[in-house]
Amino acid sequence: MGDEDWEAEIIKPHVSSYVPVFEKDKYSSGANGDTFNRTSVSSPEMDNGSSRKDPFLRTGFGSGRSLGNRDVGEFSKRETIPTMGSFGSGKGFGNRGFPNNKFEEGDSSGFWKESNNDCEDNQTWNRGFSKRGGFQDGNESEASGPPRRGGRGSFRGCRGGFGGSENNDQDEGTQRASGLFGSRRPALSGAGNGDTFQSRSGSGSGRGGYKGLNEEVITGTGKNSWKSEAEGGESGDVQGPKVTYIPPPPPEDEDSIFAHYQTGINFDKYDTILVEVSGHEAPQAILTFEEANLCQTLSNNIAKAGYTKLTPVQKYSIPIILAGRDLMACAQTGSGKTAAFLLPILAHLMRDGITASRFKELQEPECIIVAPTRELINQIYLEARKFSFGTCIRAVVIYGGTQLGHSIRQIVQGCNILCATPGRLMDIIGKEKIGLKQVKYLVLDEADRMLDMGFGPEMKKLISCPGMPSKEQRQTLLFSATFPEEIQRLAGEFLKSNYLFVAVGQVGGACRDVQQSILQVGQYSKREKLVEILRNIGDERTMVFVETKKKADFIATFLCQEKISTTSIHGDREQREREQALGDFRYGKCPVLVATSVAARGLDIENVQHVINFDLPSTIDEYVHRIGRTGRCGNTGRAISFFDPESDNHLAQPLVKVLSDAQQDVPAWLEEIAFSTYVPGFSGSTRGNVFASVDTRKGKSTLNTAGFSSLQAANPVDNDSWD
Ligand SMILES: Nc1ncnc2c1ncn2[C@@H]1O[C@H](COP(=O)(O)OP(=O)(O)OP(=O)(O)O)[C@@H](O)[C@H]1O
Fold first, then answer.
1. Which atom of ligand 1 is nearest to the CA of 376?
2. Which residue ranges form the domains of the chain, and what is each CATH number?
3. What is the value of ipTM here, to two decimals?
4. Is residue 332 within 6 Å of ligand 1 at its C-beta?
5. Could you tell me what percent of the chain has a pLDDT over 70?
6. With a 6 A CB cut-off, is 428 part of the ligand 1 pocket?
7. Tell me: the pLDDT tens digits for 340-362?
8. C-beta 379 within 6 A of ligand 1
9. Of 157, 461, 632, 636, which sees the most CB atoms within 10 A?
10. What is the pTM of this model?
């Protein structure tokens, strides 16, 4: 993917005539115009002979004046403003595109490295410098990025940092680190939001710095520098400015805390889903919240959250966790896994009492929850805060892309449940800001992702950190909608040998409330098809998944050009922008969110009615997670996927399987491709290595509908092979 030759289609006269509304307002005079010379951009030295691929170069998207990293959704649907250049043509100004010309973080080098793997904190270890600082990744062969909308924008005019080697990256980084923010941006001030940056030349280690109202200079050198990313620090090595973003605190009022959306018409149908529990002596499932015997405050909070009935994964997982057992639970997307682990943990904490308090010097959380993306961990935190409302239990969230000092300050105020992304967690542990001795619960949400090659090593480090109780001493809970066999095997290292495995429906299966359609669409027709679909959809909330960060920017910009209010989220956007984008989507300002896989898992956004896979992901599991952003909690949704026979044939067989398991129509052409395509290890009936259909330990104990309690294991499990 990503090789689409956009150039042929993108050069259209109307492109340069569309100017986003805020551009008109702020820069309508020609004075701010094209200070960046477009021809220089496409010089061979810079584009490495590959500018053919970069539509932005030819159309002026992102050339020169950054639109800032404003969400493209702010390119209003309704505005068409007479020509004044193209997107972002002109100055390297308004770094992030904030209306008040606020500056931040300053990732403004001219080149950036694209990666298909748009994930979180393990990737963020690369972020501070190498990804952003002026170099170009050979594979991507882009002379510059897409419309970076400022920030790390390609064509920043004044300091683009072009170059073709990693050395240039170093140079750019050094340049940035040596006072770029301090000395080159004296006393910048903008209004509001604490985003104002102030010059701090000479502060800290004397390398310059920048500061906002809520921000402090964190320099990269000297005794006080944070740990390098390679060591697990997320804020970067010696070069480059540190992340200073402090997320706004979530609303404190009860209505906001307990705001929720309605369960859908199919919520009751959850009861008919088959549930398997494997392992020894599984406790009986419960049928009602009352049976869980939770304390009054918790019960009140559950009621205030609008939960009246347990979902299947909750019926089985809650008693298992209450019984102190380790658990691997697999249930379809949007079926309430978060509450399935939070409620029993909170119940235990309430029963046993907590030790951490704001008066303790070293915070020692009783529970650590990790998840692969920042937005997801924040969502889990909000759920934890909701269910612990009115109790003395304090949940804290820490994640990358935010100021480390802020994370530390949150923790020292008291921390019983620590919700964290892996990079930030390891950073905090490395700095000895928390003690692990009290950890009784370790939860890996999206556990298959947390244990795969990306995060697995970090998770292994986590469980072998000094002080971390051994698996015999803690309770470990793994949750996901997908659990490939090989990951299940790896999980044995984390779990006690007698763990229980709960499978609600088919492991790795898609949610049946999502109506799936697969359309055969070639690369060159995708955009046209997308626009056609979105026009038909109207204002209904839609997530569009693409394979690369660069393409996410491109498609979002393209849609804005087509007057479709769109924003985007991906791993190269600053955290502030990501949160803004998600907010704009969540609250309806932009009904279309273009995303990479960073938004594929876990995100629970009300009323997402459509998911469009503009590009199919590389794995079927990812497909299942992506389409699971719609059709949640008994609501219905639609997923449309563009299948390009040039690149997606390997997915034909697993797609046919997922579609038929979910009782969806399977197009004849897809079956034909599936039939004629050899996929090593795949077999339609067992799914081979593609994903597991059962607990890989083989011992199945029950096969029940969710409304009935489980039976004892029919086949004792060979636990020995799991240590
Ligand atoms: N028993 C319940 N009654 C009503 N709503 C519920 C119940 N359990 C969960 N929900 C709601 O259902 C939605 C989906 O829950 P959640 O995000 O935990 O799903 P999930 O299984 O973790 O999904 P994913 O696999 O995508 O991460 C949330 O809005 C949650 O508040």
1. 27
2. 254-504 (3.40.50.300), 514-677 (3.40.50.300)
3. 1.00
4. no
5. 60
6. no
7. 999 999 999 999 988 756 677 79
8. no
9. 632
10. 0.71
